[in-house]
Every structure is written in C-alpha cells, then in structure tokens.
C-alpha cells in the first residue's frame, strides 16, 4: 500500500492486490489542528474530491490461443509423423458449438503457433445465422506464413439452394468473392500465384447394373461386376 498527500487533511490511498480488480479511494488523516481549521479544510477537501470518480481497472481476460508451438500439444499425423494433426472440436470455434460447421481437420508443421482470432472476425456475435464470412481458426509462423480456415454462408457465394462446389464456381471465382475478406484489402488478381483443385474419388461396386452419376469419372468392368469411380457432388 502506498500513500500520496492530497491536502493537509485528505490523502489518496491506493490499494492493490493480486486480483484483477484495482480501486482508488480517499481516506481521512488523523491529524486535526483545530475545529475551525477542520471545517475549512473539510470543505476544501470535499470540493477537491467531488470530481474524482471511483476508478476500477479490470485486466483483460487471457487469449484462448496458445502461444506455444503446436507440436507441444497436438499429436503427430498418422500419414506423416513430421507434421501434427489438428482436429477442430466444439470447444474451438463458435460455429462448431452452434452446429453451423461440420468438424474438420488438417495437418500443420509442429513449429507453427496458433494465433488468436478477434471476436469480430470469429462470427461469435452472429451464429448460427451469419451473413458474412468468418475465420474459424488461424495458425502462423513468422518465416513460413500463416494458414486460416474461412467459412462463408452459401448465400454469400450463390443464390442457388443446395449448391454443389461446381455450382459455386472455379477457385478464381471463389477467391474473387472471399479474397477481400481474407486479405483485409482490395483483391488484385495479379497477386494470385497458383490455384489447384483436388477431387476426392469414391469407389462404388455394383453387380450387373449400370452406374451413373453426374460426376462420373470412369467405369470399368471385370468378372466381379462393374466398378464406377465418381466424385461426390
């Protein structure tokens, strides 16, 4: 506890503790020279104290993001132990807690760190009916860059209900729609270095039937029946 002189009668006493709340209050001195002096100094002290409000300082809550390398708390990837596997769960994002996004997972270099996502970017204020894209999670490395998962309501990309990825359009069209949100600035097509599309192929076996699907890639016949490989739409 430390004390600072305020007047000959009043002093400001600042008390603090290990808690997150700190308050400033006024306390009276025990020294009283005379009754007239007491009255005069009392009025002076009250006049000086009246403009001073009670000040409460609240320490901000700590960030939920871990400022440590992800390799210290994420398991190795089964497909490549030199990377770690991040599995998003309901405790990680507001959209997952609201059931607005299905769980997802991806691999990361073990030296990367998880970055804090600002509340205004996380969609926490608008779930489960957000009209704008939001950031799910973000990881970064000072030298290698950053990766973030951005989710967007379908209406932001197309007016077609139950649209497939093909209906939404090419990567270039998708980037043009979400690019300014991701970069925080006007998107310049010349800044795009490379795009790629990876199709996951699902194999279905059917006997003595003809397989068809709007995303059929190839069909082959053998003694056990007809095999069709297609991409789920």
From TrEMBL:
UniProt protein name: PsbP domain-containing protein 6, chloroplastic isoform B
Species annotation: Glycine soja (Wild soybean)
């Amino acid at each position: 506890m430390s004390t600072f002189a305020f007047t000959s009668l009043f002093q400001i006493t600042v008390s603090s503790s290990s808690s997150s709340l700190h308050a400033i209050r006024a306390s009276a001195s025990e020294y009283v020279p005379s009754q007239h002096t007491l009255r005069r100094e009392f009025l002076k002290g009250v006049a000086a104290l009246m403009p001073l409000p009670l000040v409460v300082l609240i320490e901000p809550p700590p960030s939920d993001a871990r400022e440590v390398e992800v390799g210290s708390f994420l398991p190795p990837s089964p497909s490549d132990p030199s990377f770690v596997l991040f599995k998003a769960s309901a405790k990680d994002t507001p959209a997952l807690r609201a059931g607005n996004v299905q769980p997802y997972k991806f691999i990361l270099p073990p030296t990367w760190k998880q970055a804090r996502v600002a509340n205004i970017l996380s969609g926490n204020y608008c779930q489960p009916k957000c009209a704008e894209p939001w950031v799910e999670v973000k990881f970064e490395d000072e030298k290698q860059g950053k990766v973030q998962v951005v989710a967007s309501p379908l209406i932001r990309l197309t007016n077609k209900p139950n649209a497939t990825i093909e209906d939404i359009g090419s990567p270039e069209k998708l980037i043009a729609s979400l690019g300014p949100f991701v970069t925080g600035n006007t998107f310049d097509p010349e800044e795009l270095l490379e795009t790629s599309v990876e199709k996951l192929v699902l194999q279905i076996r059917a006997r003595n039937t003809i397989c068809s699907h709007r995303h059929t890639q190839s069909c082959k016949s053998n003694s056990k029946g007809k095999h069709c490989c297609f991409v789920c739409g």
